[in-house]
């Protein structure tokens, strides 16, 4: 993890230590995920699911879910099942994205990809298993002090973020765009608003829903999440060019090899950095009404544009 205490902060959060905050929340998420997927018969599928789910990572998505719930007056316990679910869904997308039929990558988070260890057949099933478990986990493990209609809303939001209206739709357009040189900014934005930002948006929005957020505040959270989602992708595109495989934990230069249109290929590196910072500023502006309670979410937004992997 990068040294996040040096990230630009607003005066109000000068004493907030993001590195310590992320480390503690990451530990909580890792413990919950470990407990969520025990190894039982048939052992191979559970081992494959755990291999990718527990392979590390910054846990940005579940932490966003927890932080939003806390900001809106909820607790970590209320949101943890949903936080685990979004990480399961995210991990599924990585397993499937790395398959030869998709991005055909050999490394993820510094380790061999799931299909390189368990074979393509088991890797597909491991992703499927994590996806199914995500929805089961939200439905069964969310505490009783969270109204059932809120749980239903979370299930609907997660399904929408994942399906053809979200991640799947974005991935399809991404695949169709490979090798084409005439991809417009509008198409690129469509890809990443769906492939990347939709799940990040669901993390934030679902954290708010669990806490009982108002419709007005839900709109603010949605705009915050959409902005950081695009900023996250712009930084990913930059890092694909500027970072090494060791820093990324996955193959560097993948986008160029696949002849993908990226934000740096349209804007250049410096303009891309500026755009990412503008999106983060817009995201943080949406949180102003929440005052001091918004400090963690603001700091995470700045972290997104400061990371080096």
Biggest β-sheet description = 2 strands, antiparallel
| DSSP strand count | 2
Helix percent band: 55-70%
Terminal CA distance reads 8 Å
Radius of gyration: 18 Å
The helix/strand class is mainly alpha
- Proportion of residues in extended strands: under 5%
Question: Looking at the structure, what is the overall shape?
Answer: globular
* Number of distinct helices: 16
**CATH superfamily membership:** Farnesyl Diphosphate Synthase
| Count of discrete domains | 1
Instruction: Give average pLDDT, whole number.
Output: 91
The CATH topology label is Farnesyl Diphosphate Synthase
Strand arrangement across the biggest beta sheet: 1-2
Element-by-element helix/strand order: HHHHEEHHHHHHHHHHHH
Summary tags:
309 residues; mainly alpha; Farnesyl Diphosphate Synthase; two-stranded antiparallel ribbon; 16 helices; disordered N terminus
Walkthrough of the structure:
The chain is an all-alpha fold. It has one domain: Farnesyl Diphosphate Synthase (Orthogonal Bundle), CATH 1.10.600. 69% of the residues lie in helices and 1% in strands. The protein has helices spanning 18-36, 43-53, 60-71, 76-97, 114-118, 120-141, 148-162, 167-177, 185-195, 197-211, 215-242, 245-248, 254-257, 263-267, 269-286, 295-306, and strands at 107-108, 111-112. It has a two-stranded antiparallel sheet. A hairpin with a 2-residue loop joins strand 1 and strand 2 (111-112). Helix 3 runs antiparallel to helix 4. The N and C termini lie close together (8 Å). The model is unreliable at 1-12 (pLDDT under 50).
